[in-house]
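Please check the following.

. . .
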Amino acid sequence: MTNSVAQVNLDGKVRIGKKTYTVKDSIDHVVANNDTIKSLAKDFADAVIPLYRENGNYLLAMKSMLGDSKQKFGEWIKGTDLAKIHFSDRYNMMLIASEWKLVQEMMKSGELFKKNGDPLGLSSIQKKIAEKKKPAEEQVEKKQGSAGNTSKGKPKGSKEPSKAETVLKNTVFETVVPKNEEEFAVQIMDCIEANGFKMSDVIKELMALTNKK
């Protein structure tokens, strides 16, 4: 059996809010938005993050046409202009769209802007989102663990698997061997997000390992 790239009809329709667009128009819109983001001056910083969200909504809508399969979506993108946008940027824009309520709160508090008023980059925003979500997730795990310890007949010291452990067991990181560097990088991003690791620290450790060889 041979692997084939998933196909999506460019005349197919995606829905964003109450409006419907063709896949081709959606691709063109995301690419144009990305060019606009790069050219915006810091005086228009407030406009950048909403554009990230807009792109994320388009990407999520197109991804849903492939059954929300990250692997099929990645393969399909290679044949479109969306390939011009780095895979980690695409991932983070979808994250911003998915966590828009939290992102809005951080925009209002100024957490997503540098001291000079420039908006943070996508990878930095991803870290901020992970930092904000981690305390809430830890609180849920603590409550689950506390409830579990009162269960009759439950072995002392046993606990429910953490959310990070559950997430990893349900991602391609455990079950699928990557076919190329891009797929492997996506799996690493999954692991980083699930565990709340810092991208800069992961890169530093990788470089340290490389220098040992």
User: Anything to note?
Assistant: Residues 31 and 82 are 6 Å apart (CA to CA). Residues 162-175 have pLDDT under 50 and may be disordered. The chain has ten helices and two strands. The first helix runs from residue 23 to 39.
